[in-house]
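Per reviewer request, we include the raw input and output of the structure prediction for the construct analysed in the revised manuscript.
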Amino acid sequence: MAKITVYEPSGTSLNYRVRSRYSIRLWSVRNSRLLEWFYHTFADALLALHPVWKLFGYQRIEGPMVAVEKRIKAFMFDCRMCGQCSLSSTGMSCPMNCPKNLRNGPCGGVRANGHCEVEPEMPCVWVQAWQGSRKMNSGDSILNVLPAVDHSLSGTSSWLRVTSETALERDMKKQPSPDIGNAT
C-alpha cells in the first residue's frame, strides 16, 4: 500500500533552505579574491562619500544603510549584522555563523570532512574561512586575533562605522602635529 504524504511545495524543506544558504556562502568563499577587490573598491567609494554622510549626519544615514547592508550581506554571507564585520580578514566566511560563536578560529570538534560538530550538515565556518583567506591578497590577516564581539553594535552598519573611523584616522594624519622641539 502506498504511503500517503502531505503536499510540500518545492524549495520549502529545511534541508533545501539550509543547502541553498550554504551554497551561496560557499560561493563567496570560493570567490574571496574577487569579493576582496570589490570590498576595497566599495570601501573607497563610501570613504569618498564621507563629506555627504557627514553633511546629512551619520545617524540619519544609518537606517537606510542598515537595510541595504543587511540584505546584501545576508544573501552573500548569511550575515548576522554584528556591526563588526570581519569578512575581509576571514576569507569572506562570517564567523558569526559558527554555532558556538567562535570568533578566532575553529573549536576542537571539526569533523574529518571539514563539517561542524554541532551541525553536521554544515561546513565549518572556520575551515571555509581558512580556505577563503588563502585566495585573498590580505590572506594572512586571518592570523590576527579579533576583539570580542561588542553586542551593543549588533544591528548597526559596519560599513558606516568603518568609513567614519577611516575618515577620522585620515583627518588626524592631515593635521599638523605640534612641534615639541621649538617649545621655549
